[in-house]
Amino acid sequence: MDRLEPNTGLVLEGGGMRGVFTSGVLDALMKHDQYFPYVVAVSAGACNGMSYMSRQPRRARYSNIDALRKYGYISLKSLLMKGSIFDPNILYERLPNEIAPFDYDAYGQNPATFEMVTTNCLTGRAEYLTEKHDRRRMMDIVKASSSLPYVAKITMVDGIPMLDGGIVDSIPIERAVNTGHPLNVVVMTRNRGYRSTERDRKVPYIIYNKYPRLRVVLSRRVEEYNRQLELVERMEDWGEVIVIRPQRPLEVDRICRDPEKLERLYEEGYAEGERFCRAYSL
Questions:
Q1: Do 224 and 170 meet the contact criterion of CB atoms below 8 Å apart?
Q2: 3-state helix, strand and coil shares in percent for the chain, rounded to the nearest 5
Q3: For the whole prediction, is pTM greater than 0.85?
């Protein structure tokens, strides 16, 4: 078993419901008491990372699979009635405070740094935010980090309009390196070799018309994401990152509601996390 450097960072990609893979990986890490001193996470990675930081095994799994099956929090009805395809009341109010209580105290006492990535709608730049004690601000940050463009409302954090961090920094490996973590473990939600085949398109003025810089970065999302995928694979080949990822193309998309598919992806993540823990330790 190889021992990692003490300041190794952990980077958690987003991906909507693909993030159930990440929840499996993190449950395996918690089983083996593998806790990193620095974690940077975006979108679904931030949601799953919260339960890792509060050291609550299987909480994220319950939120992603069992709670989805029971409460159906992904729906067009929610989009039409509440402005978000992911029901914000269930995800950011009822789940952490009632359905699957979040351990705010354990989270606040965790000495590790946990940064969540958001996109500043005014500047079109990524923000790397952390909060350990103010519960309302904490939930606003994770909500903003996961607020997918077009299908979720803009979330205000510190009076600034924010959206999903994945718009500009889907895989925040460069942030991890720049904050003093030359070696990082990156949890991906796509298999190696994947590249998005979507085409970037200019966002019409009538969409987000108050935020011209946001429209610019939305028009470059695919190019930037593919650039980051290539960067991670180069760094992996050079031995600068260790990547935990699905081994085959996914059958789960960003808004998947099929519990059987989600369960299979969770189990794959757990198995890959176990394989990592057999090979490395902190």
A1: yes
A2: 45, 15, 40
A3: yes
